[in-house]
Amino acid sequence: MKIAIVTETFLPSVDGVVTRLRHAVERFVELGHEVMVIAPDLGVSEHHGARVVGIRPVTLPFYKHRRFTLPAPTVDGIIRGFHPDVVHAAQPLLLASSGAFAAHRQRIPLVASYHTHIPRYLDLYRAYRWGKPAVWWQIKRNHALADVNLATSETMRGELAGKGIENLHVVRRGVDTQAFHPRFATDAMRERLTQGRPDKKLLVFVGRLAAEKEIHTLRPMMERRDDVALAIIGDGPYRRELESLFAGTSTIFPGFMEGAELAGAFASSDAFVFPSVTETLGLVILEGMASGLPVVAARSGPTMEQVTDGVDGLLFDSRDERSLDAALTRLGDAELRGRIRRAARAEAEKFSWENASDDLLRYYEMAIEQHG
Asked: Which of 315, 326, 361, 344 shows the shortest CA–CA distance to 175?
């Protein structure tokens, strides 16, 4: 097939959407498909044999840490010149909406995928809550153009269906179980992340440091408990505020990590903590599980699709301090912790990016069949 992917974010950015698309592109090319990615221009023109066409980005006032590209009429001509068999619009809201409309105008089969729950995030950025109805209107209008719509969890499929979006399916998740593995644990990394107190319970958070990640809700725990060290790994618009908020506690902000360094940080910790209840999936949960970590996560629909309390992770109620304390107390049980570590790794081994990408290909084929 000739596949055109139009996305709001791609390399060199690092997030769950980019991770999924990067692995998909690599798999598609290896299987002999011709792939073109249209994305914000961040200096990448090729990836794994696929052409990357950059469109000039801008900085939006409410999210200055990352650059986005507004809808662009040039996308229509780029797609027309490539003449793809299918267009995949990943999160069609800004640039990707141009891909959706180009496919519609040119009568090309269209797959649209929903990754980031923007309307829910607007609840956390109070100054922009007024825009929520308009965002939902845009989402429903753009996804109505697609032959196949994809969500990343059953919970999100249900919510989108409730908004009237049709032809919905759930795309499989994936993880690189060789890149993330318990064998990458080191005493040196543990010493670094605990700031010289390796005897403490080391909790690690990995992700974009933004309000929707709800990292700030962990602050009372760090004030209350002296048996816990917290490593908040990543960068983002909320970093300075978080550094100020957590000042004086056993919390470290080592910044952005990737590759072997990130794998070592995961594996050297006692648990991966995930306080957000707004994520549509949270692929980083699987990375923690692949590293053999218990996931200590706030209960939400998408999270509970990945984590079974007491089996391969520990769940708590968001913003409920007693519930979080109870989960951390259970983490102190060495026998339970060992069982959860083994089960978490075993669960992660059920998933691969090859299978997840092949799943995506099947939805492309479905769109072509339904469109014809």
From this structure: 344
Tell me how far apart the alpha carbons of residues 96 and 40 are, in angstroms, rounded to a whole number: 10
**Strand ranges for the chain from DSSP E:** 2-7, 34-40, 46-47, 50-55, 58-60, 63-68, 86-90, 110-114, 148-151, 168-170, 201-206, 228-233, 251-255, 271-274, 295-298, 313-316
Pairwise CA distance, residues 62 & 74, whole Å: 25
134-174 pLDDT tens trace: 999 999 999 999 999 999 999 999 999 999 999 999 999 99
CB count within 10 Å of CB 81 equals 9
What pLDDT digit, counting tens, does each position of 64-74 carry? 667 889 999 99
Two tokens at 53? Answer: 């066409």
Q: What is the largest CA-CA distance in the chain?
A: 63
- Token pair, residue 295, equals 């996931």
Question: Who's near 20: CB < 8 A, 6+ residues apart?
Answer: 115, 174, 283, 356
Three-state SS for 113? Answer: strand
Q: What is the pLDDT of residues 85-99, one digit of tens each?
A: 999 999 999 999 999
- Per DSSP, helices labelled H in 202-320 are 219-224, 239-245, 259-267, 283-290, 301-304
pTM comes to 0.92
**N residues, the chain:** 372
CA distance 226 to 254: 20
Question: What is the DSSP track for 291-344?
Answer: TTPPEEEE--HHHHTT--BTTTEEEE-TT-HHHHHHHHHHHT-HHHHHHHHHHH
Q: Is the pLDDT of residue 298 over 80?
A: yes
Buried b (16+ CB within 10 A) or exposed e, 182-212: bebbeeebbebbbeeeeebbbbbbbbbbbbb
Exposed / middle / buried, residue 127 (Cβ in 10 Å: 0-12, 13-18, 19+)? exposed
